[in-house]
C-alpha cells in the first residue's frame, strides 16, 4: 500500500475540517502538550528536594532533565514512521498510556539510575504525543481555521511554565515529591477520553520500511548537537568536549542529509525545506525570531536578579508580564493575519519586539520598574502574534500528504532552536564578560544589557527577512487551498 494523503475514518467532511466543535477538539489536542510542559516545569522547581530524597546532588539529578530532552529529540523522526503505520489517533492514545505508566515508574524510583531511565522513557512518549497531536490538528482543520486552532492550542502551553513552579513547590511542601509525577496519571486519562470521543481516526496511506541508517545518523547528530549547545556556558575544561560534540554532530548531520536525499522513504525528509514558507518559518527568520525571544526568557531573569538586585519572587512576577502580553493577543492573531497577511504581521511584530529589546538594552537600570513591565507586556504581545504566525506559516504551503513529515521536521527544528537560544545568550554573556573585564564572574547589568542588545539585533534581522514573503501569503488563500 502506497497511497498519498490522509484518510479520516468515520467522520463527516464538516468534522474533518474542524468546523464542528473546533474549540473542544483543540482543547483535547492541547492537553497532552500542556501536561508534558507542566511536568517539566514542576520537576525543575522541585529539583533540590527530589535530589535530597534520592541522596544525590541537584547537578546529578539534572541528568533527568537532559535525558528527557535527548529522548524527545532522538525519537521525533521515528514517530513520523510509527504514525504512518498505526495512525495519529492511535499513536496519541498509546503515547498517553505510556507517559502515564512511565510517570508512575518515575514516582516509584528509588535511585538516580532508575529515575533517569524513567525520565528518558517519558521523553520518548512525549515525542510521540507531540507529533500525533499535531497531525490530528492538521487533519481536522483547513486553511480557513488552522491558524485559529493553533493559536488556541498554544494558550494552555503558555500557562504550563507559569503554573509549574508554584504547583511544584506546593506539592513538595504539602505532600510528597512523588506526587509531581503521579498527577500526570489522571490528566492523561482525561486527555485520552477526550481524544477518543472527540477526534477522528487519522491514518496516512503510506507504509514504508523503517530507515535504520537515517534514524541512527539523525539521532546521533541531534544527541551531539543538543548536548554541545547545552554545554556552552560551562567553564574552559569542557570546551574540548563541546568542540568534539559539535564537530561529530555536524559530520553526522551532513551524512544524514546525504543519506536522506538518496533514500526513497527517509526517516527525515529534507525536501520539505524546498517549500519557501516552510523554510522561512523553521530555519529562516522564524528561527531567528525564536532565538531572540526565547533567549530573552533566559537572560531576563539573570538581569533582574543579578543585574538589578531584584528578589527572586519579584523577578518572577515581572517576567510574567511577557506571558501576559502574549496571552492577551491570542484572540487577535488570526483576524490580524487574515486582514494584513503574514508578511506585514510578522514584519511588524518582529520590528516592535526588536524595538522593545533595544529599549531595555539601552535603558535598563535607569528606568522605573513600572515602565520596564509595560515594555515587557508589549514585547510579549508582539511575541504572541509572531510565534503563532510563524507556526501557521509553517503549514500554509504544505500539501496534506506532507503533514506528517513536516510536523516531524518542524518539531525537530523547534527543539534545536530552543537550544540555540540558550547557547547564543550564553556565548554573548561570556564575550561580554571578557569585554567588561569580568570574565569568570556572574553576569551583571552591563553583560546582560549587551546580551539583550544582541537579541534585539537578531530580531531586527528576522524582521527584514519576513519582508521577502509575498503579499499573497495569508490565511486560507485560494491558491494554497487548491494544493491541498
Automatic annotation (TrEMBL):
Any single Gene Ontology cellular-component annotation: plasma membrane
Top-level taxon of origin: Bacteria
Topology term for the membrane: Multi-pass membrane protein
SUPFAM superfamilies: MFS general substrate transporter
PROSITE patterns, per the entry: MFS
Family matches, as InterPro entries: MFS, MFS_dom, MFS_trans_sf
Compartments reported by the entry: Cell membrane
Mitochondrion among keywords: no
Stretches that traverse the bilayer: 27-51, 63-83, 95-117, 123-140, 152-175, 181-200, 212-232, 238-257, 298-322, 342-362, 369-396, 416-438, 450-469
Keywords for the protein's UniProt record, in alphabetical order: Cell membrane, Membrane, Transmembrane, Transmembrane helix, Transport
Sequence ranges assigned to domain Major facilitator superfamily (MFS) profile in this UniProt record: 25-474
One GO molecular-function entry: transmembrane transporter activity
Protein name listed in UniProt: Major facilitator superfamily (MFS) profile domain-containing protein
Annotated organism of origin: Hyphococcus luteus
Amino acid at each position: 500500500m502506497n497511497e498519498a494523503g490522509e484518510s479520516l475514518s468515520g467522520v463527516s467532511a464538516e468534522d474533518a475540517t474542524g468546523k464542528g466543535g473546533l474549540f473542544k477538539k483543540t482543547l483535547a489536542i492541547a492537553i497532552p502538550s500542556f501536561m508534558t510542559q507542566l511536568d517539566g516545569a514542576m520537576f525543575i522547581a522541585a529539583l533540590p528536594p527530589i535530589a535530597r530524597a534520592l541522596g544525590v546532588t541537584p547537578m546529578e539529578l539534572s541528568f533527568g532533565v537532559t535525558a528527557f530532552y535527548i529522548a524527545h529529540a532522538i525519537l521525533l523522526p521515528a514517530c513520523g514512521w510509527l504514525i504512518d503505520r498505526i495512525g495519529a489517533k492511535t499513536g496519541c492514545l498509546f503515547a498517553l498510556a505510556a507517559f502515564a505508566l512511565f510517570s508512575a515508574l518515575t514516582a516509584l524510583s528509588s535511585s538516580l539510575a532508575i529515575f533517569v531511565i524513567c525520565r528518558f522513557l517519558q521523553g520518548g512518549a512525549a515525542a510521540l504525543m507531540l507529533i500525533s497531536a499535531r497531525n490530528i490538528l492538521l487533519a481536522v482543520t483547513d486553511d480557513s481555521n488552522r491558524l485559529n486552532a493553533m493559536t488556541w492550542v498554544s494558550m494552555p502551553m503558555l500557562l504550563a511554565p507559569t503554573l509549574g513552579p508554584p504547583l511544584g513547590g506546593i506539592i513538595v511542601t504539602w505532600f510528597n515529591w512523588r506526587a509531581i509525577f503521579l498527577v500526570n496519571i489522571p490528566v492523561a486519562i482525561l486527555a485520552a477520553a477526550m481524544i477518543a470521543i472527540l477526534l477522528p481516526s487519522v491514518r496516512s496511506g503510506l507504509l514504508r520500511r523503517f530507515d535504520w541508517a537515517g534514524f541512527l545518523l539523525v539521532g546521533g547528530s541531534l544527541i551531539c548537537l543538543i548536548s554541545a549547545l547545552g554545554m556552552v556556558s560551562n567553564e574552559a575544561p569542557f570546551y574540548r568536549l563541546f568542540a568534539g560534540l559539535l564537530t561529530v554532530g555536524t559530520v553526522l548531520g551532513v551524512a544524514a542529509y546525504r543519506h536522506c536525499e538518496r533514500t526513497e522513504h527517509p526517516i527525515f525528509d529534507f525536501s520539505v525545506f524546498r517549500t519557501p514558507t516552510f523554510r522561512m518559518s523553521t530555519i529562516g527568520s522564524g528561527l531567528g525570531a525564536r532565538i531572540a525571544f526565547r533567549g530573552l526568557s533566559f537572560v531576563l531573569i539573570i538581569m533582574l536578579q543579578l543585574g538589578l538586585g531584584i528578589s527572586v519572587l519579584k523577578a518572577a512576577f515581572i517576567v510574567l508580564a511577557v506571558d501576559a502580553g502574549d496571552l492577551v493577543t491570542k484572540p487577535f492573531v488570526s483576524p490580524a493575519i487574515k486582514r494584513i497577511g503574514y508578511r506585514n504581521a510578522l514584519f511588524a511584530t518582529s520590528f516592535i519586539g526588536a524595538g522593545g529589546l533595544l529599549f531595555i538594552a539601552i535603558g535598563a537600570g535607569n528606568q522605573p520598574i513600572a515602565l520596564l513591565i509595560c515594555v515587557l507586556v508589549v514585547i510579549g504581545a508582539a511575541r504572541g502574534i509572531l510565534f503563532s504566525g510563524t507556526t501557521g506559516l509553517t503549514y500554509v504551503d504544505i500539501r496534506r500528504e506532507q503533514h506528517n513529515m513536516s510536523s516531524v521536521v518542524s518539531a525537530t527544528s523547534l527543539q534545536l532552536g530552543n537550544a540555540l537560544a540558550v547557547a547564543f545568550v550564553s556565548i554573548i554573556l561570556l564575550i561580554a564578560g571578557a569585554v567588561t573585564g569580568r570574565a569568570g564572574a556572574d553576569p551583571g547589568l552591563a553583560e546582560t544589557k549587551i546580551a539583550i542588545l544582541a537579541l534585539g539585533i537578531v530580531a531586527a534581522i528576522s524582521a527584514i527577512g519576513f519582508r521577502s514573503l509575498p503579499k499573497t501569503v495569508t490565511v486560507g488563500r485560494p491558491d494554497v487551498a487548491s494544493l491541498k
